[in-house]
């Protein structure tokens, strides 16, 4: 609604969602049931156009991924050569530093999508029930079922 984090709250009519922008004198509130119904409809419409019958889509490999996988192996080989006395520290350590710098640059430049597999399959949503959600859902109470501001029954406070 206003671009900030939303919170939920109980109302006499059920529940509502609200957001407020820090430093501004306004707070926006929207009815929970109507918002839930609208979001459910939008998700159902979106899923109606997605093929969920196939296997998970293989993530496309980023161009630098192979190089990123090769760098630790190269560092290990250099350190093994140093440990075996084949190469001196004057040769090995600058090479390792350069490889570590290259690795850091590749990780920094790696696209966000390359760090997460993309899945366009029903396997991504094993609990997805294609039927509409039942009306009259109840929101759980805050604080593990207790009413805010009240001590559990049978216990004294203070």
From TrEMBL:
Residues 107-158 are annotated as: Disordered. Residues 134-158 have a biased composition (Basic residues). This is Recombinase zinc beta ribbon domain-containing protein.
């Amino acid at each position: 609604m206003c671009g900030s984090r939303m919170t939920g709250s109980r109302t006499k009519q059920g529940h509502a969602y609200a957001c407020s922008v820090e430093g501004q004198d306004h707070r926006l509130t929207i009815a929970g049931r109507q918002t839930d119904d609208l979001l459910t409809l939008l998700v159902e419409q979106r899923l109606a156009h997605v093929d969920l019958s196939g296997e998970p889509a293989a993530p496309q490999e980023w161009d630098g991924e192979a190089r990123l996988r090769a760098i630790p192996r190269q560092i290990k080989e250099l350190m093994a050569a140093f440990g075996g006395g084949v190469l001196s520290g004057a040769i090995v350590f600058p090479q390792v530093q350069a490889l570590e710098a290259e690795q850091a640059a590749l990780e920094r430049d790696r696209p966000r999508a390359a760090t997460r597999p993309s899945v366009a399959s029903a396997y991504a949503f094993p609990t997805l029930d294609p039927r509409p959600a039942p009306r009259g859902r109840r929101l759980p109470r805050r604080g593990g079922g207790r009413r805010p501001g009240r001590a559990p029954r049978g216990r004294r406070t203070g």
